[in-house]
Amino acid sequence: MHVDYLEKQLKNTFSDYKGLKFHMAPPLISKKNKDGQLIKKEFGSWIFYLMRVLKNGKYLRGTIFDPFFFSKERLQERNLIKEYEKDINLVLEKYNSSKHDVCLALALLPLQIKGFGHVKKVAICNAELTRKSLLDKVINGFDQEKQTAAE
After folding, report:
1. Tens digit of pLDDT for each residue in 71-113?
2. Cα–Cα distance between 51 and 13 in angstroms, integer?
3. Stated pTM of the model
4. Which long-range contacts (CB under 8 A, 24 or more apart) does 140-149 make?
5. What is the distance between the alpha carbons of residues 151 and 148, in angstroms, rounded to a whole number?
6. What CA–CA distance (Å, rounded) separates 95 from 132?
7. Distance (Å, whole) CA 151 – CA 144
């Protein structure tokens, strides 16, 4: 978390930022709307104190002591990492110069997955569609290559 940077920038930009409001949807305390998306709540500048506490907990992330370790989002993140490692091994196995751009696109695909909650879910779905197409091209080559081979 960038709480120190954020607070420093606010101090440098505004004479008083104590009236600042944050709109966030912490998964442990937020309700969901009819579409299953978390509803944001408004928090005052006191949230900086909580952010500092959370910042110090970053060392727990990915360990069994992470309070979100068993959440659906964290489980999905770990599965995405395993899937990515398999994809990279496949790229290394199937790589040739004619597939360079496709292999590179597949390797960079995780950069498209951003956000949290429902925003991240949409990004993962979009990346999965792209991944399937790219994997097909890595494994089977391009249609032009198939046509050339058939002739």
Report:
1. 888 899 999 999 999 999 999 999 999 999 999 999 999 999 9
2. 20
3. 0.70
4. 141/98, 141/99, 142/98, 145/98
5. 5
6. 17
7. 11
